[in-house]
Amino acid sequence: MWSWVVSLVFFFLVWDNATCDSNLPPRDKVSIYDNGNGKAIINTEEDIVAYTMKSVDDPRTLDKILYIHPPNNIVSQNDIVALWERKIGKTLVKTYVSEEELLKSIQEARSPMDFAMGLIHTIFVKSDHTSFTIDPSFGVEASELYPEVKYTSVDEHLHQ
C-alpha cells in the first residue's frame, strides 16, 4: 500500500529571472520567458502539509497519487506579473527572453544556476506541470477531495 503526494512548485518565484539572483518581487522590471503564458501550479508549504495530513487516513488516496492542483493556483508568469503590478500600482518593464536564449543561458550557466534556470524552463516555458490530465485510475486531486481546506491563492500570497 502506498500514496504519493505531488505538489510540483512551492511559492518559489524567481523574480529576476534573467540572472536568477533575486527572490524579491520586482519594482521596476521583470524578465518574461517565451510568451509568458506557460502555466505552473504553485502552492504554499502549509497547504501542501494540510492536504497531505488530510490524505493520510483517507482510503480514497490509497495506492493513488495525490496531486495538489488548486484551481486558483494554476497561473502563468503573465498572470503573476499582472497580479503584482496591480498590487504595487505600477507597470513593470518587461524583457521577453526566448526559449532559445534561455536554453543557451542554461548551457552556459554554472551549477546551481543551470538547475534553477532549467526549472524556469520546464515550469514556465514547457508547462510540464500542467500539460496532463489526472487519470482517475491512479490519481486524485486534493482540492476536489478536500474542498473544506482553505488554500492560499497566488493573489493572497502576494499580499504577504
From TrEMBL:
The keyword Signal applies. The keyword Signal applies. Residues 1-20 form the signal peptide. Residues 18-158 form the NmrA-like domain. Pfam families: NmrA. Keywords: Signal. PANTHER family: NMRA-LIKE DOMAIN-CONTAINING PROTEIN, PINORESINOL REDUCTASE-RELATED. This is NmrA-like domain-containing protein. The lineage of its organism: Eukaryota, Viridiplantae, Streptophyta, Embryophyta, Tracheophyta.
